Amino acid sequence: MIRKAGSDERKEVVNLFSGIDDSMIIAYRQGYMGDAFIDRYPDPTVGMMSSGEYTFFGGDANSKEAEELVKAVFQLIPGNETTATFAESEPDWEKTLLSVPENNPKSVPRFGIVQRDYDFDQKKLRSFVEALPEGYEIKEFDMDLYDQAMSEDWSKEFCEIFDSGEDYLKRGFGIAAVQDGKLISATSTQTVYDGGTEIQIATHPDYRKRGLAKPTAAAFILECIKRNMRPHWDAANKISLRIALDLGYEYRGEYTTVKMEIGDGS
């Protein structure tokens, strides 16, 4: 029977995800955020780690326990949708994830960025910040911007994994482009771990393609440098990839995820 893994089981559970190079796995391993679900302990056969709208699968993808786990996804995690990642060395997970029609699964490509310490060109980053279009200003997240972010679907991922606004402002941070006090675009700490963060970047649908995302991302990276944090980037689409490359990241290559959702996904 699939159950939530206890904190004392974390060390063995993370071995199931050893082939996945993602900072959310690091954040779970270090006990910062995320939950894991397994079929048994010790020696779990399969496992799923959940963090916000993302899930990670590991173990024997061809086992009956894997099928049970995938069928139970939306009984185990909050929300109506998730993007599932698995190790490239375990491609059978794609077949297993696609085999449960009630999850409305579909394969979706993502664009991996090399996870390492970068020596960013700070002068170039500052030039991107200065290129913020007229009528907007760069502002660090405060409680008002946190509340704005959590009130709309497009921006919830900036902060939703944190326990509260106070927790977010204590352990995380975000850099926003605002217009008359309204949150328009931002880059934020989606997850945090010792010495690093997973970047979440998004712009309000009505304001996209106006050159707002790159300035917030550049300002965010400059703040990470001040805080001695590694800003890890993973691109969901080619626009995100292009911004990452402009900022100085290195492309790792395309990989496959599986998007699952139930109901209307809202």
Q: How would you describe the overall organization of this protein?
A:
The protein has 266 residues and is α+β, with helices and mostly antiparallel strands. The chain folds into 2 domains: 3-112; 122-249, 3-Layer(aba) Sandwich (Aminopeptidase). The protein contains 10 helices and 12 strands. The strands form 2 sheets. The chain has a 7-stranded mixed β-sheet with strand order 1-2-3-4-5-12-6, with helices on both faces. A 5-stranded mixed β-sheet has the order 7-8-9-10-11, with helices on both faces.
From the structure above, extract its key features.
alpha+beta, about 270 residues, 5-stranded mixed sheet, 10 helices, 2 domains, Aminopeptidase, globular, 7-stranded mixed sheet
Tell me the series of helices and strands, N- to C-terminal.
EHHEEEHHEHEHEHHEEEHEHE
Total tally of structural domains: 2
CATH A-level architecture of the largest domain: 3-Layer(aba) Sandwich
CATH-level-4 superfamily name of the largest domain: Gcn5-related N-acetyltransferase (GNAT)
Annotation field: number of helices: 10
How does the SSE layout of this entry go?
Elements: E1 3-4, H1 10-13, H2 23-29, E2 35-38, E3 46-51, E4 54-59, H3 64-71, H4 73-76, E5 81-86, H5 92-98, E6 106-113, H6 122-130, E7 137-140, H7 143-150, H8 165-171, E8 174-179, E9 182-193, E10 196-203, H9 213-227, E11 230-232, H10 238-247, E12 251-261
Parallel strand pairs: 4-5, 10-11
Antiparallel strand pairs: 1-2, 2-3, 3-4, 5-12, 6-12, 7-8, 8-9, 9-10
